[in-house]
Amino acid sequence: MPFTGASHIRIARPSRDLAKAERFWVQGLDLTVLYRVTGEPGLHDLLMVGHPDASWHLELVHDAGHLEEPRPTEEDLLVVYLDGPVPDELVSRLVSHGGKRVSSPNPYWNAWGVTFEDPDGYRLVLSTRGWPNP
């Protein structure tokens, strides 16, 4: 099958601590654990999270024997378009589950969303806009 708009996308990133990452993405953002591998000889530990019906998921990888240190920048963003206000309860939940609310160097995201760093330093933006936006 050719690459189309219906093709599934996996965003893969290294993680220092999968338990902390799971706490942020699953308990904080309310994603679902789609798949997990832990402690199998010859394989690195991984955690896949997302929504079961979505055409994307996030894969977080940890290999204690060959630690790949996350190297996020302020512009490595995962943006979720909420098409409305970011609920205060969601902001509180993300912070209480290991996220850090941060200001964006890009004024667009400060005007149109709330930005967090996950436990590995990658950024999540909850945008008040919809997609596509005018």
Automatic annotation (TrEMBL):
One Pfam family recorded for the sequence: YycE-like_C
Residue stretches making up the VOC domain: 5-129
Superkingdom as given in the UniProt entry: Bacteria
Name of the molecule in the record: VOC family protein
Species assigned in the record: Streptomyces benahoarensis
